[in-house]
Amino acid sequence: MPEIPSVLTDAEWADFQAWCAALTIPVSPALRENLGRYRALLLDWNTRVNLTRVGNPRAVLIKHFLDSLAVLPHLDFEGPLLDVGSGAGLPGLVLKLARPGLPVTLVEARAKKVAFLEEARRRLGVSGLTILHQHLEPADPALGGRFGTVVSRAFTAPAPFLVLARGFLASRGRVIAMMGPPRPGEPDPAQTAREQGAGRAEVVAFSLPEGAGDRRLLVAEWIPAAGST
């Protein structure tokens, strides 16, 4: 495989900015360099470790980076972010690069992917990023009630993910489940969230450019009732 440059070309960056604008995703010039270095590292490791089935450099920008950044407009809550089953850092590391001041914790159970995340943290010079090599348990006392946002990309079906993620939210917070297009007979994810006590829940649908597919975000919010503690 030819070496992947660690920079985005002018044409790539112009396209990426246009894609982000279409999805109302704010991006800064610093993101150009960081995404270029991240992509090069990801594709280099992917020749030795199965990190992703997406091997085309342009497809990485669309299917991984843009898809991850679609979460960004929905990170309205202050406080740390937890990415459950982060894999190669999607979406958590991409969101961290876009919002450097946000404390982010990545949880990943597979050792080879954890090794990649640790290398990416070092090579990209990221601070405020915690990487945990573990299976996430619902009653983990070290993480319970700590996060303003819990996110996952295709980790599991919405109902069990909501049950798991809710235990890691602070009293006020948001769960975001990244999903593909709906399946026949699938329960309404927003209704599922409301049945689990979410004060607000919506499904945000969008399409990735260049025919890369349809996506959905389940955004479910928990806010204590007035007068509660």
How many extended strands?
7
Classify the helix fraction into a percent range. Answer: 25-40%
Main sheet strand line-up: 3-2-1-4-5-7-6
At the fourth level of CATH, the homologous superfamily is Vaccinia Virus protein VP39
Tell me the span between the first and last alpha carbons. 57 Å
Q: How large is the share of residues in beta strands?
A: 15-25%
Decide which structural class fits the backbone: alpha/beta
What is the architecture at the second tier of CATH? 3-Layer(aba) Sandwich
Taken in chain order, the helices and strands follow as: HHHEHEHEEHEHEE
| Uncertain residue segments | none
In short:
By secondary structure, the protein is of the alpha/beta class. It has seven helices and seven strands. Helix 2 crosses helix 3.
Question: In words, what does this structure look like?
Answer:
The protein is α/β, with parallel strands linked by helices and 229 residues long. It starts with 9 loop residues before the first helix and ends in a 7-residue tail after the last strand. The chain has a seven-stranded mixed sheet, with helices on both faces. The chain has a single domain, classed as Vaccinia Virus protein VP39 (Rossmann fold). α2 crosses α3 and α2 packs antiparallel against α5. A hairpin with a 4-residue loop joins β6 and β7. It has seven helices and seven strands.
Q: Which features would summarize this protein structure in a list?
A:
22% strand; globular; 229 residues; Rossmann fold; alpha/beta
List the SSEs and their pairings.
Blueprint: H1 10-22, H2 30-46, H3 57-69, E1 81-84, H4 92-98, E2 104-108, H5 111-124, E3 129-133, E4 147-153, H6 158-166, E5 169-179, H7 189-195, E6 200-208, E7 213-222
Parallel strand pairs: 1-2, 1-4, 2-3, 4-5
Antiparallel strand pairs: 5-7, 6-7
